[in-house]
Amino acid sequence: MKIVKAYVRVNRAAQVVQALQKAKVPGLTAYAVHGISGETQPFFHGLHPFEPSNLPQSVKIEVICEDGLVDGMMKTIAEAAKTGYPGDGIITVDEVERLVRIRDVT
Fold first, then answer.
1. Is the pTM of this model over 0.70?
2. Beta-strand (E) ranges in 1-106?
């Protein structure tokens, strides 16, 4: 199993979630995060001098899926998130060593 993590623009997050639901993703997690990427400089966002509390907001979306579904998840996310401008976000994929449903733990 894999966990696909995407960092997307706030104004594209709803489209990403809707696209994933349309693709029949059984579940996802989304939450607000703050940060900048290597594509943008802190002064671009008025962060000079740099203040961590002033970092731009993004949305991090996580989806756990079977290995064979990763490429499809990445494509779905990218198509829904893309504006064509720097700062559209990134997608990462990590191994899920183990998954256990809390209700099943005895």
1. yes
2. 2-9, 29-34, 57-65, 89-95
